[in-house]
């Protein structure tokens, strides 16, 4: 089969299996990049000619490749391209498009585990103080946008939901009595995510007092259950890029420059803080929507405060002298 045709069949397979458009687009981008390199470097166009050396050669090429910013690709980027290629080749093997497996000895490149600093409680207060937005000449919008921003930061900090999950919230997804959000998670799964009392207050204030102000900008006076929770200054649903732009502005206004100000760092802060406070990793796993504890444990490794307390308690310097075990120090059945 022609490799480009196989890629199209692979993408259709994932569409039928309800993979998200974002996932499918990532597969397409990564595989089109690979096949272009394969055709140029080896003049290979058919799946029958794929070999292990081509998979390894692709990774080697990526390690030396330069990205859009004129810098070498990050380890994580190279690893991700390797993951996409590996998934595609596994599919080729499973569908018997190729007869001989080529992935059994293909290993993904290792990634450098970098330390990523997360927020402090002082950083969170700076972010909340930086939520003021909009022209003061239009005070009704100024107050509404500030309330919306505080609700967004509070929910992300409190629940750890993803950027896409927050942007996709509908009014029917918010349970006011139970303080629970119904979140559309990865893998086309829906999950109830609890919100604390303190985390829910800014959201409740925004929904009852200020969301109607933003909705009115789009001439919407009636709220329907399928309507988006978070709106822009013109009353339209806040998009994922719009949410990212909001955090760029919050970063600039807050003055936080020693760490990344982003929705994902809110998620990281929630996880590391709860694990450090002693919440069960299983509960944190479910809160974050992880399918296994493996990913959750990566956040556990960042909780230096908990590690420090544990180390202080079990430091070798706390070792007590052993009790006198007799007249001699002998520990065996010999004299010398």
What is the CATH topology assignment of the largest domain? hpI Integrase, Chain A
The spatial strand order of the largest sheet comes to 1-2-3
**Number of DSSP E strands:** 3
- Measured by DSSP, the beta-strand proportion falls in under 5%
User: In terms of per-residue confidence, which ranges show pLDDT below 50 for 5 or more consecutive residues?
Assistant: none
Report the helical percentage.
40-55%
Give the biggest sheet.
Answer: 3 strands, antiparallel
- According to CATH, the homologous superfamily of the largest domain is Intergrase catalytic core
Please compute the radius of gyration using only Cα atoms.
26 Å
Distance between the termini: 77 Å
SSE succession: HHHHHHHEEEHHHHHH
Category from helices, strands and their pairing = mainly alpha
> Mean of residue pLDDT?
88
Count of separate DSSP helical elements: 13
CATH architecture name of the largest domain: Orthogonal Bundle
CATH class call of the largest domain:
Mainly Alpha
Describe this structure in words.
It is a single chain. By secondary structure, the chain is mostly helical. It has two domains: 92 residues; 185 residues, Intergrase catalytic core (hpI Integrase, Chain A, Orthogonal Bundle). The chain has 13 helices and three strands; from the N terminus they run αααααααβββαααααα. The protein has a three-stranded antiparallel sheet with strand order 1-2-3, with no helix packed on it. The longest helix is centred in the first third of the chain and has 22 residues. The termini are far apart. The mean pLDDT is 88.
């Amino acid at each position: 089969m022609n490799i480009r045709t196989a890629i199209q069949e692979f993408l259709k397979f994932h569409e039928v299996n309800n993979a998200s458009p974002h996932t499918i687009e990532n597969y397409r981008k990564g595989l089109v990049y690979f096949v272009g390199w394969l055709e140029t470097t080896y003049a290979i166009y058919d799946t029958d000619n794929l070999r292990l050396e081509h998979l390894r050669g692709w990774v080697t090429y990526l390690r030396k490749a330069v990205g859009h910013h004129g810098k070498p690709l990050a380890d994580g980027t190279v690893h991700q391209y390797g993951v996409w290629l590996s998934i595609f080749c596994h599919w080729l093997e499973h569908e018997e498009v190729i007869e001989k497996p080529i992935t059994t000895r293909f290993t993904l490149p290792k990634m450098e585990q970098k330390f990523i600093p997360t927020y402090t409680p002082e950083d969170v207060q700076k972010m909340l103080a930086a939520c003021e937005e909009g022209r003061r000449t239009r005070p009704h919008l100024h107050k509404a946008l500030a309330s919306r921003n505080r609700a967004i930061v509070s929910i992300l900090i409190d629940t750890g939901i993803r950027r896409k999950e927050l942007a996709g919230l509908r009014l029917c997804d918010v349970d006011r009595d139970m303080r629970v959000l119904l979140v559309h998670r990865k893998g086309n799964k829906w999950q109830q995510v609890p919100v604390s009392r303190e985390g829910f207050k800014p959201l409740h204030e925004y929904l009852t007092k200020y969301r109607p102000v933003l909705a009115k900008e789009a001439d919407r006076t009636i709220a329907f259950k399928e309507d988006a929770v978070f709106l822009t200054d013109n009353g339209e649903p806040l998009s994922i890029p719009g949410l990212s732009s909001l955090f760029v502005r919050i970063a600039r206004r807050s003055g936080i420059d020693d760490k990344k100000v982003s929705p994902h760092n809110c998620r990281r802060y929630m996880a590391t803080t709860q694990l450090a406070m002693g919440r069960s990793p299983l509960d944190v796993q479910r809160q974050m929507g992880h399918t296994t504890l493996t990913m959750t444990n990566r956040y556990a490794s960042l909780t230096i405060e908990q590690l420090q307390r544990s180390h202080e308690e079990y430091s070798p310097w706390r070792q007590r002298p052993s009790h006198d075990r007799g007249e001699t120090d002998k520990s065996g059945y010999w004299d010398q």
